[in-house]
Amino acid sequence: MPQRSRPLRHSLRRHQTISAYLFIAPSALIMGVFLLWPLISSARLSFYESSEFGPSTFVGLGNYRAMVGDPIFRRDLLHTLVYALIVTPATVGLALVFALMLHRQLRARAFFRAALFLPAVLSLGVMAIAWGFLLDPTIGLLPHWLAPLGVSFGKGKADPTIAFVFVMIVGIWKNVGFYMVMYLAGLATIPGDLYEAASVDGASPWRQFRSITWPLLSNTSAFVFIMATIASVQAFDQIYSITRGGPYFSTETLAYLIYRRGFQDLDFGYASAVAWTLTLIVFAISLGQRVYFSRREINY
Amino acid sequence: MTRALPSTARPSGLGRAPGRVLLYLSLVLAAFMTLLPVLWMLGASVRPEGNILSHPSDLIPTHWTLVNYRQIWSAIPFANELRSTVVFAGGVTIFSLLFDSMTAYALARLEFPGRRLFFVLILLFLMVPPQITLIPVYQMVAHLGLINTYPGMIIPRATNAFGIFFLRQFFVGLPSDLSQAARIDGASELRIYWSIVMPLARPALLTLGLFHFMYNWNDLLWPLIITTDNNMATLPAGLAQFAGTHVVEYGLLMAGATMAMLPMLLAFVAVQRKFIQGIATTGLK
Lengths: 300, 285
What we know:
The structure holds two protein chains of two kinds.
Chain A: H1 6-45, E1 48-51, E2 54-58, H2 62-69, H3 71-103, H4 109-121, H5 124-135, H6 141-146, H7 160-188, H8 193-200, H9 205-216, H10 218-233, H11 237-242, H12 254-264, H13 268-295
Antiparallel strand pairs in A: 1-2
Helix pairs in contact in A: 2-13, 3-7, 3-10, 4-7, 7-10, 10-13, 12-13
Chain B: H1 17-45, H2 49-54, H3 67-75, H4 78-109, H5 115-126, H6 130-143, H7 150-154, H8 161-172, H9 177-184, H10 189-200, H11 202-218, H12 221-226, H13 235-245, H14 250-280
């Protein structure tokens, strides 16, 4: 860049600043009104005993104290963590496997890609009804087909453990295709001659994956892992549509607890305290993952 | 990032015959499992109501009827809800592509005080669970008298942290020479944004547009609470309410769901190739 005189550079700077503020004005206004302010007001709500009609009594950390001592909160926190710890790696792992399969030249590749991506474009609320039917232990298709193999669905979604597995399966089903597309995009950026050179050197496919594919996909993995973790921790739609948190609250997670205490019991103060706690958990996990991935010299 | 390796090799042979068979088998199985609920939905939509409940484990219907497709139009205000879904999802998509790209342009290409702070805020907003803001936002929209209106549905969604982040990653990667040259020639930032950066960003805009459209087309909770009038409800919200009050009419519900899904499916099939390219060319690789 050619050297410019000081005043010119200075006026360009000021000009850029004014333009920049005009450019961000619409977003800043909308986010300020419909995101930042609601966040602040829900933080405020969390310190009050409050209902539909607004805050009533200031209770300080009362809601948070009640929450920590609440076995229901601890149970739902455990469910949230178990769900995230199983669904996140399962979703990302399957997405990577499918992407590796569908990256190469194949017959009907476009069909397979579209088929696996399809759940991402479907309404989870509606599809959960179809899943409920497929998994029903007395009339469902899957128990009917799997019975000869000795697979039992027991009491189906009336059984706490099986209900939780159902919710996780639907959660994985919904998102695998989406992350697969992210991985396909990542794979498309790896130069093919790397593999050619590696196979001339006699590297096995596993070795090629470990030395070329995986390291060069680290940006994708970082992004996919963080998005998938956030999605898992906030899972709601399939729980709402399939089990409504039951049976005996066995599928209730923190996201569902917020909905139940806020919109059903109208205890907005307590619900806001849980919501802020969930937000802080998501912040902490994302931050941890960012640090982990950036330590491995990856920036996304 | 790319490691220097010699690139004189011949193309490697991919997989041998048994491997291929295994590969295809896994893919067919995976695709079948993925499509199973969709196939069941399609099947149920063309079966007479009683048949679904008496023979639910038939995947391929033995009795066919189109009566569900005819009846759903009068069972719920289908035409109105379809229009509402199109306006809502389309409106959100257009406005957020515009506002997201303007903000992303400023964050990626302009120097200004507060830039880092604003970007950090965007990263934090990415992680906010939607449940946390739902109550206050609802109260605000109600206070403004915008319940059951398109502005009330669209404006709170008209920009979004993910969109800004996504486009910023893309804009950062564009070469700066063009805009630098235009700037020295006296072009305004608005002109650089609109005539240089936006055309180059077409694949990313297409991808993000599809994300926005998809997400809002399918969204349940927001349209459900922001509309109380059935004629203003979106299709997923209308169908969910229908499912709540008419628990047994699966055929109707599945016919409605099939018709609600079709536009999304066709849109995806049409732009599939560009869609993947669009992601590939952004910073999200």
